[in-house]
Structure formats: C-alpha cells, structure tokens
Amino acid sequence: MKVETFEKARLYGLDKEQFGTIKQILLDVIVTTIEMYLGYIGYVWAKSEDVAAYFGYSADHEILVSCIFMFLNSCIGIVKDIPFKVYHTFVLEERHGFNKQTVGFFIKDQIKAFVVMQVLMIPIISAIIYIVQHGGDQFFLWLWLFCGIVGLALMTIYPAVIAPLFDKYRPLEDGPLKKSIEDLAASLSFPLTKLLVVEGSKRSAHSNAYFYGLWKSKRIVLFDTLLLNKGKKEEEVENKEDVGKGCTDEEVLAVLGHELGHWKLGHVTKNIIIMQANLLFNFLMFSYLFKFDAFYLALGLPKGKKPILVGLLVILTYVLAAYNVVVHYLMTVLSRKFEYQADAFAKELGFADKLKDSLIKLNIDNLGFPYYDKFYSAWHHSHPTLLQRLEVLKEDSKKKQ
Question: Are 227 and 245 in contact (CB under 8 A)?
C-alpha cells in the first residue's frame, strides 16, 4: 500500500468504528433503556388495539393486532434509524469516496425496502401466531419446521425476485472471463445455471461476489466493481478515478475459486444446519418462558395480557441475549476457520498467487485497514485480516516446499 492509501484506510476505519460506537450507545443503550423504563412496547401494543378497534375488531383478534403492532413498530424504527443511515451514506461513505447514491435513489431504496419487509413479514407473523395458538404443547417443533422452510424459500427467492427490485442485474458478457468461470465450475461439478453482473456501482464503490440457489440450480453474481474498470475499456470509464480499480480476469477467477471452496467443502450446508439447530433451541426456550407474567408486566402491558409476538421479541432479544453473544462469537470462530479452508482450496486449484494479488487489491480498493490487534479481530471480524490470510498462504507454500 502507498503511504497515502494506508492513511486513508486508517481514517476510514476510525470513522466507521466511531460511528458504530456512537450508534450503539445511542440506540442500544440510551434509547432502549428509556423505552423499557417508559413501557414503550406496552404503549405501542395498546395503540395497536385502538387501531384494530377503530376498524371494528376487538383486542381478541391477536393476529390482526400483532400485524398492526409490527407495522407501527417498523414505522417508529425507521424514524429512529434513518438519521444514522443518512449520516452513514451521505457523510461517512461520501467523505471516503464510496457513496454513489443520489438522494432520490436513497429515498426510493428505503421506501421499497419498507414495503417489501411488510409484504414478507405480515403473512409470516400471522402464521407464527397461528402455530403457537393451535400447535399444542409441541408447537415449537411446528414453528421450527415452518421457519426453516420459510428461511430456505427466502434464500432462493430473495436473490432472484427481491434483489432485482433494488439493483440491475445483467448476464456476464461472452468472453474469456465467462468461459474461464464456466470451465472452473464444470471442473468442480458446480451446477452453474446463470452468470450475472450486478450494477452495485450505482449504490457503492465497494466490491463483492456471491452465489446462490439450492441443489442443482446455482447462480454466480459478480459486482461490477469487482471487475477491472467495472468490466469496461479504459476509455469507456466515466469517472477516471475508477480506472485501474477492480480485479483482472485471473484475479476474479481466484476470488471465485475461494467462493466455490465454500460450496465444495460444504460450508453453506454446515451453516444452515447450525442455524436450524440454534433456531430450534430458541423456539424451545420460548415455549418454556413465554407464559411468565413478569416479562410482559416489565414491558408495560396490563396484568394477564401476554401477546405471543411480544413474548417472542423479548425472549429472543433480551432474555437470550447472553446466549446469543456466545453463539455469535462461536460462529465468528467457525467463519474464520471456513475462510482459511476456502483459501487453501483456491490454492490447491493453483490460484495462490492470484488470490494473494486479489486480496491485496480488494483491500486497497475498499480501504480496508490491514492490521488489527489479534484479540480484537478474533472477536469482531468474521474474516481473518488481510495479513493473517497472506501469512497462512505463505506458510502453506513453505510447508509444501
């Protein structure tokens, strides 16, 4: 890294850390404490019952009241969160040259995200409450089965149906890169059905790549910012600052070799199994705890009022908070292990040197700070740092020699 780039990365890292700390203190500590003290949840639930009564429904219609409660809570959540989103996008990211959104694009984005969330969550919330009401003593099993099916469905539907509502996707143009990716996928028996490029540059200068799909239908998605010059010729690049940014075809192939390593080594399947086991445990604990009056009284609800949705939120969010911290850390440890394994897989494919080059280039393009304290990184980062990954790749080469 050039000294100038190193300094930019350092300042960007500090800005992100300070922003995250201030946001956490204000929202998770101060605002949440005030809400708890004032009985915010109880108040919003009472208002939800009032809205239902206005339309001629009694408070006994728990599914309807719960949907109204979720809608009102989402609206209030936007009011709390939007100042931080605006600052993050138009101040922090803008200051460091990553924001590409206009105000109009941002507003449309937020509206679409809100509408999509309501369309998805209202039927899901309704089904969850119905299952708890009619599922008997073992309702947590039915609840777990339902949420597992919905989760897998969303994993398939979101990239294919919902994501295109926010970003433009196009097939990767015919050429050497497309042919190389298809050959790589075929050599690993990866069931590639589509190869797409998403125009992420209209939103941000950050780059990425991922694949999605279940069983025998997989799609690979490349951000245009990942491609050298956004996949264009130098003279076609509108912003001359973008010339030279992104990865060469060989480096893109190395990045995909890493991502395909996650698939070939079963990391995606293992993560799904772990998440489902964790979800089952959460619902089991909910089934034991959700009838305790103390939880609801503490939230400002009248005695005897125990809404299922409120119980689910308070138990999963607050009662199991310490457990969730432990699980999050263990998943971070596992994620870092998987990253090293995927790097080793790409290396076995012959991409060691190009993988190193791509990691360095992506780190520079995204202003990633290369050095972190190892204990800080072990707790906060789901991926090893750049230097850690390069060091392991170097050690593997020495051992092989």
Answer: no
Mean pLDDT across the stretch 283-292?
A: 93
Contact predicate 49/65, CB 8 Å: yes
% residues pLDDT > 70 (the chain) = 93
pTM of the predicted model as reported, rounded to 2 decimal places: 0.86
Distance CA 40, CA 207 (A): 40
- Pick the catalytic residue from 93, 259, 339, 395: 259
Q: How far apart are CA 257 and CA 220, in angstroms?
A: 12
**Backbone φ, ψ for residue 372 (5° rounding):** -140, 150
Q: Residue 271 has which token pair? A: 């993560």
Catalytic (active site) residue 259: yes
For 242, other C-beta atoms within 10 Å of its C-beta total 17
Predicted confidence (pLDDT) per residue in 12-34, tens digit: 999 999 999 999 999 999 999 99
* CA–CA dist 208, 109 (Å, integer): 20
CB–CB of 285/312 below 8 Å? no
Q: Which residue has the tokens 């750049």?
A: 386
Q: Are the beta carbons of 251 and 364 closer than 8 angstroms?
A: no
